[in-house]
Amino acid sequence: MDLKSIAVKMAYLRSEGCYMRKRWFMSGLIGCFLTVFGATTGVFATEEAPVVLTITLPQAESGDTAVIALSEQDLRAFPAISFETSTIWTSGVQRFTGVPLLALLEHFKIEARELQMQAVNDYSITMPVDGITAGAPIIAYERNGKPMKLRDNGPLWLIYNYDANADYRTETVYSRSIWQLDRMAIIR
């Protein structure tokens, strides 16, 4: 695929205003780029189960980058945690359900010093791994029993149980509570 055909495709997607088509196209483009430039790609979700979270991690032995692409169904396969908490962004107490970040890191045997978390709108934060516990934060995929849509801070929200621990009610933790999460990069 040459640059002109990519530009034409992007113009078409922009004119259609269809977020999911853009996302699928960009996911495919990124996958091709990583494959061409020596990256090791992980499992990619299917059309029925689109990618909602992409994890990239450096491979020390080869210098390549491994990519783990997860669908919402993949995340739901992990043991879930639910809790009720108020947030500074929502009205009243909300019930969040999701996978503990620590469980995800342990499952994929990811060893890191820090994580760079990035949202759909490119907001990003870097957080130390040593502050992650078995119950906090979680990557929430449901709020009040329903999947979160993009316009409702979803589909994924890195969230803490703010009401359970005063240590979670700080500007630092609030800044790490990234909604519309879609990318995570491992920093070793």
Automatic annotation (TrEMBL):
<feature type="domain" description="Oxidoreductase molybdopterin-binding">
    <location>
        <begin position="89"/>
        <end position="159"/>
    </location>
</feature>
<dbReference type="InterPro" id="IPR036374">
    <property type="entry name" value="OxRdtase_Mopterin-bd_sf"/>
</dbReference>
<dbReference type="Pfam" id="PF00174">
    <property type="entry name" value="Oxidored_molyb"/>
</dbReference>
<protein>
    <submittedName>
        <fullName>Oxidoreductase molybdopterin binding domain protein</fullName>
    </submittedName>
</protein>
<dbReference type="InterPro" id="IPR000572">
    <property type="entry name" value="OxRdtase_Mopterin-bd_dom"/>
</dbReference>
